Amino acid sequence: MFDVLTDLLTVLDSTMRLSTPLLLACLAGLFSERAGIFDIGLEGKMLAAAFFSAALAYVTENVWLGLAAGIGASMLLSLLHGVASITFRGNQLISGVAINFLAAGMTVLIAQSWFKQGGRTPALLSGGRFENITLPFADALSVIPIIGPFYKEVVSGHTILVYVALLMVPLTWWVLFRTRFGLRLRAVGEAPEAVDTAGVSVIGMRYSAVIICGVLCGIAGAYMATGLQAGFVKDMTAGRGYIALAALIFAKWRPWYALSSCLLFGFLQAVALRPDLIKGYLGFEVQVQLLDALPYILTVIILAGFVGKAIPPRAGGEPYVKER
Amino acid sequence: MQKMPVWADVILIPLVSLLLAALLSAAVIVGIGEDPQAALNLMISGALGSTYGWGYTLYYATNFIFTGLAVSVAFHAKLFNIGGEGQAMLGGLGVALVALYIPWPHWSFALIGCTIGAALLGAAWAYIPAILQAKRGSHIVITTIMFNFIAFALLNYLLVNVMRPAGSMDPATASFPEATHLPTLHMLLEPFGIKFSKAAPANVSLVVALLAAVFVWLLIWRTRLGYEIRAFGHSESAARYAGINPVRITVIAMMVSGALAGMMSLNTTMGEGERLILNSTEGAGFIGIAVALMGRSHPVGVVVASILFGFLYQGGAELALWTSIPRDLIVVIQALVILFTGALDNMVRMPLERLILMFGRKEG
């Protein structure tokens, strides 16, 4: 029959993998939106990073150079978003839409031009990918019931970027809520005029937030192409940027809640990959389509305020105009 | 403060933005090692050089007129409807239900029936985000994005598990009955002695799209409701003081928008596919954003921009066929148009404004 523990551990293990890009993108969006810059271009930035990291990792056979290229590409798009929405005070949502399409089109165009494989990169070999890391004592501890296998299968054995993403959660919390920079960043998203009066540059703060967002999206995209999978394929982020956005609202723009909402959405994705398990345990089939749609449905319910109210940063989406 | 003349706002700025987008697109083509001049020639001959090319150009343009109008109506109420894609999918479902389960005597009746079906389901799909925004303050952009994904999942479920005919493998409904097939432009123009390509998919929905454009113009600029929508879009607080009910305007504007987006499926599902397939919208809901921005949310602008994008779409398909430039080039051009006419509008506007006002002062 079914071995409950093994099945659970497999699903949790893939939950960890699938949550990672969501978590990184979600924290990226958190920095940006906390500073008052709405960003629906998370998807596009991840996609661009995924392509450039895979491309460079393939050419140089060095995954770290790939990661750097991914972050660079994502940051460029972030700066474009910044120029459009901060400097020229354009509509942040429209800019985000444009960035998503720009990335969707350019990645395929460049991939076709460089590699001529129908808009994908060649599959990455070992040097071009992040290797799984076995944490210390994983084997030694595995004799302890429950905790041992959990540590070995779920916690240990991921690529370094998974741990980077997890560490980003306390780091984000600390930066936002325990440093002067974080205080100012949050203030810029709530009451930019107050920050301006205090003599701090609103534009500078917002640009730094947007750049941090670019770096995190870059790591997320690089993980997609060089950790989760081996290479870039057309449209490989498949809406994860939007799920991250949903997770961000679900978490009400708070880092620790972002972790749990991303784990939840990652878990849903992991379960959707194993319809056999659902049938085996629940005794009936749950439509895969329902599982696919669940993050979005949950977000709509949250947004509707039926489960607590999600209030975005007050100055979000508004370009700042200094009074004259 | 002085203002720019109307012609500069309506014609000059979009043209300059478009020129910038075109220049960057040309740079992209050079960047991937192709010749932009040759590419443009190929696009023009492929999309406009024959009635076959025109037939495809107008077919795509029909889609974009519907979705562009949809985005425009919402823009007038200062609502950003990104959900055109999902609303069009639901519209397709409406068309399929009406065409499959009601026996129609003639295509003209079927067209009216399907229009109602498509508009109803499209409007219904826009109603939920609208009421959530108006009553509960959830952001319409986020909810309409979510509803695109939910629509896709719903359609995927219905086509795979419910509406797929027995024995068929691909996720699609059965073909619609003969009586619901719409006449193509070839059939419509033949009595007038005009020879139009038989193979091209442009059909009578183009006429419906143009009628919809007239309807939107009448609605926005010639009715009380349209005035209220525009007033609400200019200033919500002023509209509120003037006794305009914000909930009512939000819901009505979004439902009109959703209905228009849904009617797009008349062209794709009823006119071309003659059955409902999973990906019948092909991103046209998003192109509506570019079209509405470029057309300055005015029906005339939307129709012109739609024909331009129809040309890009058909030209892009020809490029993909004859050169090694992938069709995704169109997505890039679309992105650049959205960027320059939408997000970077001020970048183009501010220097032009200064220039024009400077010359104006000299003359005065």
Mean pLDDT of chain B: 90
Low-confidence spans of chain B: none
Kindly report how far apart the N and C termini of chain B lie: 15 Å
Total helices of chain A: the number is 14
Uncertain runs of chain A are none
Give the overall form of chain B: globular
Biggest interface: A-B, 48 and 50 residues
Strand fraction of chain A = under 5%
Quaternary assembly: heterodimer
DSSP strand count of chain B = 0
Number of domains of chain A: 1
Write down the secondary-structure element order of chain B: HHHHHHHHHHHHHHH
Would you write up a description of this structure?
The complex is a heterodimer of chains A (324) and B (364). Chain A is built from 14 helices and no strands. Chain A is an all-alpha fold and 324 residues long. Chain A has one domain. Chain A has helices at residues 4-34, 42-60, 63-87, 92-115, 138-141, 147-155, 160-178, 180-190, 192-197, 202-228, 240-250, 255-272, 275-282, 288-303. Chain A is globular, with a radius of gyration of 20 Å. Chain A is 70% helix and 0% strand. With 364 residues, chain B is mostly helical. Chain B has a domain at 70-283. Helices cover 75% and strands 0% of the residues of chain B. Chain B contains 15 helices and no strands. Chain B has helices at 6-31, 36-48, 51-76, 84-101, 107-136, 140-162, 185-189, 205-222, 224-234, 236-241, 246-273, 284-294, 299-322, 329-343, 345-363. In chain B, helix 2 crosses helix 3 (51-76), helix 3 packs antiparallel against helix 11 and helix 12 (284-294) packs across helix 13. Chain B is globular. The two termini of chain B are 15 Å apart. Classes of the chains: A mainly alpha (324), B mainly alpha (364). Chains A and B meet through helix 3, helix 4, helix 11 and helix 14 of A and helix 5, helix 6, helix 12, helix 14 and helix 15 of B.
